[in-house]
Amino acid sequence: MIRLVPNHALKIVRSAPVVFTFDGQSVEGHAGENLAGALLRAGRLHLRNAPANGGPRGAFCCMGLCQECTVRIDGQVVEACRTEVTQGLAVERAG
Amino acid sequence: MIYDTAIIGGGIMGCGSALRLAQGGQRVIVLDQGDLGQGASGVNAGTLSLQIKRVKLMPYALKGHACWEAMGKAVGFAKTGGYTLAFNAREAALLQERQTLKAQAGAPIEFVSNNQLRNGEPNLTQQVVSASYCAEDGYANASLTGQYYLGKLRDAGIEYRERCEVTAIERDKNFKLTTPQGTINATRILLAAGAWLKPLAALMDVHLPVQARVNTVTVTERMPPLMSTVIGHATGLLTMKQKANGTLLIGGGWQGLGTPQEGRGRVSVDTVRPNLALAQYAVPALGTARILRSWTGFEANVPDFYPLAGVLPGVEGAYVLGCVRGGYTIGPYISQLMGDYILGREPELPLFDPGRDFKEGTI
């Protein structure tokens, strides 16, 4: 791919690295980053199953509307795209 | 440029009347303070149920249903049938009394056995004491109202102006309407501004005893299939339906906060909570459903809860249409009647004199 703008990736200042779990498996992220984003970067795209037919679903709108990225944390169903990553956060598929 | 009729209010009532008047050869313009179909016409729960219509409005509701069916896909029309539930003996008596009168008025409402109900809606609570069913019931998608009528106005070549609030009305030979987009001149005017009818009529020193209810609607996240019909409650305090995408719309006339003069209303958690509790009582599986949004819309009414549809008292050439209980269902039809009346034709069904005495029982 031709890069049309300079690559600034190395200049991004990341917050502290943290480890959280998704369905019991460790995932690396950064404190305070968006959970949907951290899961996406870790290659975890399948976040829940569609209520009507059970098909795989994942982050779509990334702004708290579509409800396709909902996961379960501490027994509560929450939108991954509106949840911040913290050290030791235990994230499960909601259903 | 002098329009034959200027219509103030671009909801179902105003747009429907405009279409009829244009068909009758009039040059009309529709003015809305916001966007077309974004008031009550666009934010209500979309229920088309004969089971919750007033007995004396039933002939209008039946005709209205036919209008919605004809509009079809473009407005998200679905004829699903609907059940109205009673959870105890008192509600069952209320249901029996109300539905019998409505059936006599022409609505195809029947009482169903517990088995029929279970087969029809297996996810309902076991606590239903009695239930009525109407095969004609269903819903449309209120959020499509504005889009639909906008297209219709354009097809008919009818002028409309959005974000065009009328701030003054003068009457000499013609009506002169002051708006941010200039003065509009018209031979007649039709006030069709829903919950804003009172301040509008007041511009001509006419007092209309219009009050606004602040009805609340809630939508859930997508759920597995839980119901296939429109579900209501004997008291009228619940309407519920599941859309094709799995979300559920829950209403029932629970009151939010605010007034039309202040702009949009606000949701009150104190009324949303019992609304949802009743919904969850009817369909226990809703216990796990998360709420996406709740919102409000203003429903206008007068003290006798019958429509205003006719001549604005004391102002020649001015007409008013609004305050129709069940206005979403009935609007497309009663606006045709209003159009006919302004065109000097005899309406198919009688209108409702806005100059009447509003004490209970005059209609």
Task: Please tell me about this protein's structure.
- The complex is a heterodimer of chains A (95) and B (363).
- Chain A is mainly beta.
- Chain A has one domain: Ubiquitin-like (UB roll) (Roll), CATH 3.10.20.440.
- Chain A contains 1 helix and 7 strands, in the order ββαβββββ.
- In chain A, the strands form 2 sheets. In chain A, strands 2-1-7-5-6 form a 5-stranded mixed sheet, with helices on one face.
- The longest helix of chain A has 7 residues.
- Chain A is globular and about 45 Å long.
- Chain A starts with 16 loop residues before the first strand and ends with a strand.
- The model of chain A has no long low-confidence stretch (mean pLDDT 93).
- Chain B is α+β, with helices and mostly antiparallel strands.
- Chain B has 2 domains: 147 residues, FAD/NAD(P)-binding domain (3-Layer(bba) Sandwich); 153 residues, D-Amino Acid Oxidase, subunit A, domain 2 (D-Amino Acid Oxidase, Chain A, domain 2), CATH 3.30.9.
- Chain B is built from 9 helices and 19 strands.
- In chain B, the strands form 3 sheets. In chain B, strands 1, 2, 9, 10, 11, 12, 18 and 19 form an 8-stranded mixed sheet that branches.
- In chain B, α1 packs parallel to α6, α1 runs parallel beside α9 and α3 crosses α9.
- Chains A and B meet through loops of A and loops of B.
Write the layout of secondary structure elements.
The complex is a heterodimer of chains A (95) and B (363).
Chain A: E1 17-22, E2 25-30, H1 35-41, E3 48-49, E4 56-57, E5 70-73, E6 76-79, E7 90-93
Parallel strand pairs in A: 1-7
Antiparallel strand pairs in A: 1-2, 3-4, 5-6, 5-7
Chain B: E1 2-8, H1 12-23, E2 28-31, H2 40-43, E3 47-48, H3 58-71, E4 78-79, E5 82-86, H4 89-104, E6 109-112, H5 114-120, E7 130-134, E8 138-139, H6 145-155, E9 159-161, E10 168-171, E11 175-179, E12 182-191, H7 197-202, E13 211-220, E14 230-233, E15 239-242, E16 248-251, H8 269-282, E17 291-301, E18 308-311, E19 318-322, H9 327-342
Parallel strand pairs in B: 1-2, 1-12, 2-9, 5-14, 12-19
Antiparallel strand pairs in B: 3-8, 4-8, 5-7, 6-7, 10-11, 11-12, 13-16, 13-17, 14-15, 15-16, 18-19
Helix pairs in contact in B: 1-6, 1-9, 3-9
